[in-house]
Amino acid sequence: MDQGVAAVLAALIAVAGVAFGLFGARWQARSMQEQANAAIEAVKAQGRDQNAQWRRTVRRDVWVEYLGAVDEFRLSAGVVAEHLADEDLPEAELALEATYSRSAGAADAYRKIELEGPEQIVAKGYALQGTVVNTIFELEQALTAVRSMGVLEEAGEREVPSDQDRPIAAILSSLRELRAMDSRDPDRTEYGQRLGLQIIASGLLSASDAGALLFTYSQQLSLSEALEHFPHGRWLQFHEVRTDFVQAARSHLDGSP
Question: Which residue from 22, 114, 184, 241 has the highest number of Cβ atoms inside 10 Å of its Cβ?
């Protein structure tokens, strides 16, 4: 073979070898980069999973703390209701002060839920907090109602049996009728409004005290309703809202959307 041709072939082979070498090195580098990227993504995924697990643990602890505060409030509110049923006003007032403190504790625990989320649980907690606030209002109204009822009963005892109308006795009788009416009775609201005007006209109670009395009596369950709401009775709504919160929290911990 001519030496010139051999030199050219050798040069071509050398160039090809370099090209193949560069291609192989680039392919190897790309493969290594892909492996590195995959490893990085795996580490990131593991980090996300660990962070999600940590968040679930933190949230679970926050929710458990909140439920504990809510349950303490519910028990305290029940004590107030029992004293009111016994018409033991001094003890009811003391128990109500303790219930205010429990309410504040539940509010503080709920703020942690607002920070930790997620929004679904925040919304369920907000509804439960609304029930706590409503319960406080109802207890305050009930306390005023017991005092107001005492005023009416004392006035009724002073009425002379021979009085022609005996308006206080009539009011007390109407209050008993209102209490016996089913809360779903469409005539209950109008009946209560007429009775409220009669009470205010008697001059024995202010409009706010009369309103508290009628509100409390209209909130009380009839016997048939109390049986329907067994075993939670007057606390059925509170129980239902709390149950909604628990179910949503459990669903989130299970990984459901």
Answer: 241
